[in-house]
Design goal:
By secondary structure, the protein is mainly β. It folds into two domains: about 40-220, Immunoglobulin-like (Sandwich); about 225-255 and about 285-435, Immunoglobulin-like, CATH 2.60.40.290. Helix content is about 15%, strand content about 35%. The strands form seven sheets. Strands 1, 2, 4, 7, 9, 10 and 13 form a seven-stranded antiparallel sheet that branches. It has a six-stranded mixed sheet with strand order 15-14-18-19-26-22, with helices on one face. Bound molecules: 2-acetamido-2-deoxy-beta-D-glucopyranose (10 copies). One 2-acetamido-2-deoxy-beta-D-glucopyranose binds next to helix 1. One 2-acetamido-2-deoxy-beta-D-glucopyranose binds near residues 3, 7, 425 and 426. One of its GO terms (biological process) is cellulose microfibril organization.
């Protein structure tokens, strides 16, 4: 009777946990802002540095204040609508994608006459006389946590047919930021206190004549992307490997989209990878049941008396993508007490006061900061060592598995919680520590055989 009652309670709390996990994961896919980075934004600062006979010269800088979301190749695209009949005489460190109709100009032809110019960064290797500081990285911007020294991108623009005083000049409207797809929404440009610049020798401070700020925020919901990443789970105490949910990021469909994926052992692999779509970076996925470009595997590897150990493996299934500067955000209650982390960088994220169950992980420079294309080398691994808090630690109810994982800022699809590997029920409490060495060895062997 007693054990019956016990299992009922266990079952109930398990389903409560399931419910909680479910509501979390459904909530995140529709929310308009990111709960793990509530103030994350990209701020565009527009500093007017000097007036010209018919306008002004401005330095425009984009600061990526997002903790973990970066902009990767092929980079950002910035657009706006002029308030009057402004033109761009010239640019440094960036260019507009189209010149537009400059036919009414004779002699000096502007760089761009469009009412709604679209600007892109220049590529690395641009001649020095066309560069300014923080430019020319092909539109790639790193995240604030990962590399603040590369989290900004700048260009200089010389605007004509504009106002030439702080009373006649007009703020551009309708800023659009693409990275390069949709997802960002930009607010109106606001006049703010002029930026102050300190000279290199720190002996003089100059200031902009006028400064406007625009704030852009990201929403995965707006980006309307299909998921790009999924999570699989395993543990030493149960030989079940819970794979990513089937069709987590799409389905293999031979009828409507033949060739949407390619088998790893296909004789046509090489020709498919270099086939049409190679230049446009169209993803070419290895055929899997989940069809995700990225899989994150969380393996509960070892149990010590006061510690436990997890192995994380990130695998790339896209034959046409090298992920530079990749990052992972992981939420698990034991991150408040992480003891050691091997071969990844780590920073605790505290989106709210007192909440420190979230960590950002990323690769070590020149070692594993590049997650290479699908294939035998297309994975990175790390192990985490947590100290147990005896009052909360348990292998039951899926507690040892992550609550959520983001790869490059995108929410990864988790397996349904009721499929998580279970602790064999006969060894609920004391048996674990008794049987630990045997179980551990057995499990490592199983894991090695099954997974390597
Ligand atoms: C943008 O991010 C910065 C840095 O985190 C923050 O100080 C600022 O308040 C944010 N702006 C908005 C409008 O959220
Ligand atoms: C314009 O400049 C004048 C004098 O330099 C200053 O008093 C005024 O506040 C400025 N207006 C704006 C909108 O910056
Ligand atoms: C800005 O966008 C709004 C709504 O999309 C539009 O009504 C307005 O005309 C645009 N303004 C300019 C200057 O293009
Ligand atoms: C404007 O943006 C700059 C750089 O992002 C920031 O330092 C400054 O605080 C912002 N000003 C306001 C009023 O938000
Ligand atoms: C698609 O084709 C592959 C290989 O030909 C096959 O293994 C797979 O089952 C097919 N999928 C569907 C949905 O028919
Ligand atoms: C990925 O990087 C490797 C090594 O730097 C390179 O050989 C390969 O062509 C790259 N693949 C893609 C798709 O960019
Ligand atoms: C996490 O937060 C708790 C309570 O707010 C605090 O006691 C603990 O030291 C924090 N841990 C870390 C690693 O910051
Ligand atoms: C980590 O856990 C141990 C054991 O419960 C505890 O003594 C220690 O204070 C914890 N450290 C933090 C930072 O929470
Ligand atoms: C392992 O976990 C699965 C759930 O994923 C469960 O069905 C199975 O019974 C567990 N195995 C043991 C030995 O407890
Ligand atoms: C363990 O599970 C088996 C079958 O799943 C069940 O018959 C047995 O009563 C369970 N034992 C305990 C102690 O809950």
């Amino acid at each position: 009777m007693k054990s019956f009652n016990g299992s009922i309670t266990k079952l109930t709390s398990f389903s409560i946990l399931l419910l909680f996990l479910f509501s979390c994961s459904t909530f995140t896919s529709t929310e308009a802002y990111d709960a793990l980075d509530p103030t994350g934004n990209i701020t565009i600062k527009w500093d007017i540095m000097s007036w010209t006979p018919d306008g002004y010269v401005a330095v425009v800088t984009m600061f990526n204040f997002q903790q973990y979301r970066h902009i990767q190749a092929p980079g950002w695209t910035l657009g706006w609508a002029w308030a009057k009949k402004e033109v761009i005489w010239s640019m440094m460190g960036a260019q507009t994608t189209e010149q537009g109709d400059c036919s009414k100009y004779k002699g000096n032809i502007p760089h761009c006459c469009k009412k709604d110019p679209t600007v892109v960064d220049l590529l690395p290797g641009t001649p020095y006389n066309q560069q300014i500081a923080n430019c020319c990285k092909g539109g790639v911007i790193n995240s604030w946590v990962q590399d603040p020294s590369n989290a900004a991108s700048s260009f200089q623009v010389s605007v004509g047919a504009a106002g030439t005083t702080n009373k006649t000049v007009r703020v551009p409207r309708n800023f659009t930021l693409k990275a390069p797809g949709p997802g960002y929404t930009c607010g109106p440009a606001k006049i703010v206190r002029p930026t102050k610049f300190v000279t290199a020798d720190k002996r003089r401070v100059t200031q902009a004549l006028m400064t406007w700020n625009v704030t852009c925020t990201y929403s995965q919901f707006l980006a309307q992307k299909t998921p790009t990443c999924c999570v699989s789970l395993s543990s030493f105490y149960n030989q079940t490997i819970v794979n990513c949910p089937t069709c987590a990021c799409g389905c293999q469909n031979n009828l409507t989209a033949p060739g949407s994926c390619v088998n790893a052992n296909s004789p046509y692999l090489a020709s498919a990878v270099s086939g049409p779509g190679q230049s446009s970076n169209t993803p070419l996925l290895q055929c899997t049941s989940h069809m995700c470009p990225i899989r994150v595997h969380w393996h509960v590897k070892l149990n010590y008396k006061e510690y436990w150990r997890v192995k994380i493996t990130i695998t790339n299934f896209n034959y046409r993508m090298n992920y530079t500067q990749w990052n992972l955000v992981v939420q698990h209650p034991n991150f408040d007490n992480i003891t050691q982390l091997f071969s990844f960088n780590y920073k605790s994220l505290t989106p709210y006061e007192g909440l420190n169950d979230t960590a950002m992980l990323w690769g070590v420079k020149f070692y594993n900061d590049l997650l290479t294309e699908a294939g035998p080398l297309g994975n990175v691994q790390s192990e985490l060592l947590f100290q147990k808090d005896m009052s909360t630690f348990t292998f039951e109810k899926g507690w040892a598995f992550p609550r959520r994982i983001y790869f490059n800022g995108d929410n990864c699809v988790m397996p349904p919680p009721d499929s998580y590997p279970w602790l064999p029920n006969l060894s609920s409490k004391p048996v674990i520590s008794l049987r630990r060495p045997f179980m551990t060895i057995l499990a490592s062997i199983i894991f090695l055989l099954a997974y390597v």
